[in-house]
Each structure stands twice: as structure tokens, then as C-alpha cells.
Amino acid sequence: KAAKIAILKLLDEAQQPSLITKIKAAKSDQLSVFFSAKTHKEGVPFRAIVSERTTWQACVSKFLAQQISNVHIEDPFRIPNSEHVISFLQDQGHLIASGFS
Is the pTM of this model over 0.70? Predict the structure, then answer.
């Protein structure tokens, strides 16, 4: 509850009334946990899955993701996706003298 109050105060100072409204309208204040059986593993252990759906944290998360997506950094080591790696290996893989994992 204290975190939510602090976020609302910060957003009020940053003049974000739309996000404040979404946070206040969120159905839940808590993350939910559910389990899925790992049927491919011996003993069928459970995988805990934490969900933020319908929570105020989801509203903040979506807002932050949207803001961060507008930041574009030129990084020579950045790999945009796995298809980029595949095309690189197809084009220049014959030049690689050693393996990697």
C-alpha cells in the first residue's frame, strides 16, 4: 500500500492524471500467483507464475515500457532479436573460427 501511495504522489507531481486514474481504477492491489505443472519433467513439479494482470502495477509497467521504448541507444553489442543472429551466422558464419555458447 505504501508503494502505491508513493507512486501516486510521484505521478501527481509529474502531472500524469490519466495514469493516476488508471491506477485508482485497477481491480486489484496485489499480484496473483498460480501454478502450472511441468508435465515434461520427472515428478511433475510445479512452476509458479506471478501475474500482474488487473493490478495497478500493470498500469505502471505499461507506462514505463512505453516511455523506455522511445529511448534509442546505439550499442554495437545490442542484438535486436534472434533472427538477427541467425541472419548474421548465415551471412558470416563461415568466418567464425571458434565456437560459442
Answer: no
